[in-house]
Fold each of these.
Amino acid sequence: MRKIGLTGGIGSGKSTVAGMLVAQGVARVDADAISRHATQSGGVAMPAIRLAFGDAVVASDGGLNRDAMRQVMLGDTSAKARLEGILHPLIGLQIDQLLAQTEQAGAEMVVLDIPLLVEGASRWRQRLDAVWVVDCLPQTQISRVQARSSWPLVQIEAVMAAQASRAQRLAAADAVIYNEGLSLQALERIVQALLKTAKA
C-alpha cells in the first residue's frame, strides 16, 4: 500500500486537496480528526491534559477549550511541547491502527493528512513513500483564515509562527501543489494529474 503524506500550513487548502483525493477513491487517515476525537468530551487525552494544564483549559462539556489552550501556549513557550507530548503518542497509535485496517481492506493508496508532518519529520518521513505539500503565499493563508473564522490577525500569525516555515515545508516536499489564484476546478485538475503520476 502506497502511503502519501499530505501537509500544508493553516489556510493553504490542505483539507480541500484531501477531500479531492478521497473523491478519487484514495483512503484518508486524518490526524486532525483523531486529535479532535481525543480531546472532545470523554476523549482519551483529556485526563492527562487536565492534569497538566488544569481546569482552565477544559470546556464546560469536559472537552478541550481550544481558545483557552491557545492563550496558554501564547504565554508559555513550553506548553506546546507538553501538549504534543500528551497528544502525539495517542495520535500515532490511532494512525497505526487505521493504517493496518486500511491495508487489510485492500487499499492501494492512503493519504496521511498530517498538518504537523514536517515538524514531526523524524517520526513520519521514513514511513512514507512521498510527501505532498499544499503551498500558497503567507498573505493568502491569512486572508483565507480571516474569511472562515473570527480569529484576530495576531492569533493567525501566532499559529503560522508555531508551524514549520514555508521554506521548511517546501524543502521536505516530493511534490508541491501550489494553491494560489486557482479555481477549485483548476486545483482538482492538478490533484488528479499528481495522483495519476503517483499511481503509475
Amino acid sequence: MPLRAIAYVSQASPDLSPERLDALVEDAARFNKLAGVTGVLLHDGGRFLQYIEGPPDGIDSV
C-alpha cells in the first residue's frame, strides 16, 4: 500500500488556551484515526510541527 507523508510548521494563535489545545489534539486524533492517518504533533508554546503519514486519500482528507 502506498503511503504519503507531510511535515509542516504552523504558528499557534497567541490566545490558544491549554483547554483549547487539548480539544484540538483530541479532535485531530479522532479525525486522523477515521482517515487512517498517523503522525505526531509537537507544540513549543508558539508553533506547531506536525508530521502525518497514511494513504493518499487519508492525507488528502486531513
Amino acid sequence: MAKTTTNRWGLTVLMCGLGILVNLPIILMMLNSLQPTQAILAREHFIPPDPNLDNYRKLLLTTPYLTYLKNSLITAAGSTVFSLTCAVFAGYALSRFRNRLMDIYATGLFAVQMFPIILALIPLFLLFRPLGLIDHPLSVIIVYAVLNLPFVTWMARSYFDTIPRELEEAALIDGCSHFGAFFKVVLPLSGPGLAAVSIFAFLLAYNEFFVANVFLRSTQAMTLPVGIQMFLQQFSTDWGGLTSAATLTMIPTLILFLFVQKYITHGAIAGGVKG
C-alpha cells in the first residue's frame, strides 16, 4: 500500500512538472502582462517584483479591445451555427444512405479540405466587394463556415455511425417519418457529439487570422487575431499591451473548455468508434 501511494505521488509530481513545462510559454506571457514593457525588455526578473494591472487597464480603456472581442465572438458563433447546421444534415446523409453518389461526395469533402484557401482569397475578394461584404463580418462568417464544413461533416458522420439504426426503425414503426425519427430520436442522442463538433468549429474560427486580415480592414470590424497585431509596430512593440491582450483573449476559450470538457472527451471517443 505504501509503495502504491508513493508511486501515485511520484506520478502526480511528474505530471505536474510536465504540465508546467508544456505551459511555460503561457505562464511567462501571463507574468509579463503584469509588468511594463521596459521591465519585460530588461529581463531582470522571472517573477515581476511589483506586479500590477496597468497593462490591462490601459488595454480596456484606451484601445478598442472589447470591439475586437465582440467581433470575434460574432464571427466565430455565426460560422459555427452555419457550418454545424449544414454538417448535421450532410453527416446524417453520409452515415445512413450509402451509395455511389454519397461516396463521391465524401471524397469531394477531402478534396475541398486539402484546397489551400490562399488561392481563393482574390476571387472571393472580387466577389464580395460588389456585394458590400468587404469589412463586414458576414464575409468571414461565410468563409469560416465553408472552411470548417468538411471537418465538421466528417466528425458528425462519425458520431451518427455510433447511433444504432434500430432506434430509427423503431420510431418508423411507431409512425414517425424519416424526418421525425431524425429530429426526435437521432438528434437528441447526438447532443454530446455535436457539442464537441461545435466547439472545434468555434475555436477554428475564433483563432483564424489570415482570412480576417484580408476581408476586415477597419478597426470597428477587426477580430482579435487581427486587432492584436496592431501592438506590433514597425520600429517598436508594446509588449505589455500585447501580452495582456493575448492573456485576455485566452480566457474565453479556457472558460469554454472548462464547461464543455466532458463533451469534448465523450464526443471524441464516441466519434472514433464505429458500431
